[in-house]
Amino acid sequence: MDDYSEHEEEEKKSGRALGTRRKFEEFECPACSANNPYDTFGNNDELLCNWCGMQFKAIVDEDGTLRLKEL
């Protein structure tokens, strides 16, 4: 197997190959650092921290990276 194929396999396992369609099942609150298990969520979904009550919008970029924007 060449290096490119190994890299593609790793992306498939991590979900990064899905880009903005990637789904997540938990997030760490940027305000209080609490780990929040959640039903499946993805790009543009609204989230609520179960610990501090802050609301966020999930933003997933083309690389499949999750960012949380405070609402």
Mind explaining what this structure looks like?
This protein has a single domain, classed as Single Sheet (Rubrerythrin, domain 2), CATH 2.20.28. It is 17% helix and 37% strand. It is built from 1 helix and 5 strands; from the N terminus they run H-E-E-E-E-E. The chain is elongated. The mean pLDDT is 87.
Could you give a quick summary of the protein structure above?
This protein is α+β, with helices and mostly antiparallel strands and 71 residues long. The protein is built from one helix and five strands.
Proportion in helices? 10-25%
Number of strands: 5
Task: Tell me the name of the CATH class.
Answer: Mainly Beta
Largest beta sheet: strand ordering: 3-4-5
Rg of Cα set: 14 Å
Number of domains: 1
Low-confidence spans: pLDDT under 50, at least 5 residues?
none
User: Separation of termini?
Assistant: 46 Å
3D shape: elongated
Largest sheet at a glance? 3 strands, antiparallel
Q: What is the percentage of strand-forming residues?
A: 35-45%
Q: What structural class results from the helix and strand content?
A: alpha+beta
Q: SSE order in H/E notation?
A: HEEEEE
Annotation field: number of helices: 1
Quaternary structure classification: single chain
- CATH fold-type name: Rubrerythrin, domain 2
CATH arch. level architecture: Single Sheet
Mean pLDDT: 87
